[in-house]
Amino acid sequence: MKKSDRHNEIELNYFTEGTITYLLQGRKIAIPPKKLTIFWGLIPHQIVQNEGSAPYFVCTIPFSQFLEWKLPVSFVDKILKGEILQDESEASSLYDEYLLNNWITDITKKNHQEVIILEMRARLSRMAINNLTINQREPQDINSNEISQVEKIAIYIAQNHKNPIKVSDIGKAVGFHPDYANALFKKTFGTTLSEYITGERIAYAQRELTTSCKSITEIAFECGFNSISRFNATFLKINNCTPREYKKRYHEPSLIQVV
User: Fold this and answer.
1) When comparing pLDDT for 88 and 57, which is higher?
2) Tell me, what DSSP letter sits at residue 145?
3) Alpha helices in 147-227 (DSSP H)
4) What are the residues facing 23 on neighbouring strands?
């Protein structure tokens, strides 16, 4: 990775051998092999050293999907502050490679998408339990003091994209004038807030089309569109196919890959 990467997804890494070193927020962090690792891809990150030659696993989880899982707040808070977390349990690592290989096999199989999502959620729930003290597992508020404004914007959209939110709502939520919030976000992501909200809604619709039995109309309204015609037109523009065609193909961008 020659330059920093940045994407609004939760990233899981698993290295079968060797140590990989990330540059994250000015810090070098060495990740040992056979340790499931998680961090927020929105934080600029770059691999600066790779001691192994074997392929390694990379999973990406849509940010809004991750927040919907309602994992322990202390665990989520650490990730949102830019920490790279590793599973502290030695026993858990024994089956991670087996689990990841299963996900690679299942991603191409019809009716297996929902199974992968359920297993991902369960695996991260177990990781959270392994990493947090008893007190940290109790419900508490996310501490946003160390989270940047653009990250707060991304969090707000992920939590509210299914509601009829406006740019003015986002600006108010983060304490900025809407024009400034929009300019700041576009500078970071190269897209306007409205375009980003639409992208989040369509991404949610894609997941529902491939993992649920809901009707297209139900999904359209559930993901934040106020008319089925607007949903169909927007979906076609982004995916070059209709929601019905997408559902028939049963195709979803892979959540996992081997690098």
Assistant:
1) 57
2) T
3) 149-160, 167-174, 178-189, 193-211, 216-222
4) 28, 46
